[in-house]
Amino acid sequence: MEKLSLTWYYDTPFDLEQKQYIILDYIQKTEKKFINREVSPHLLHLEKMIFDMKNFKKTLNCFVNEVNRSDYEFLFPSIYKLKNVYIDEMVELIDFSTPRMELVINLGKNISAKYNLVLF
User: Is the separation of the CB atoms in 73 and 31 below 8 Å?
Assistant: First the structure.
């Protein structure tokens, strides 16, 4: 099974619905791997993905909240344009994905603990 890119949620082209299907497919495939006791490296990869996504959202929120709108548009016109088009959808995608990923991560941890599997 091919790992999903760590930057999948903001890679172009950005289509919210397509990205939701991508993550649902990846979660489903990962869950099947876990059920077959193939926890590594999928569990660690999912944990890294969710860590990066949460940090991205936190950093983005801090940045957007600290810079006033006119300065933001003047200093970062390309990001300002991106904000208007994609940022809200990226946050929506992160909010959609993280609880589903957390469920699968917990499944992987439980299986790993139950069968004393080594993570690598």
Answer: no
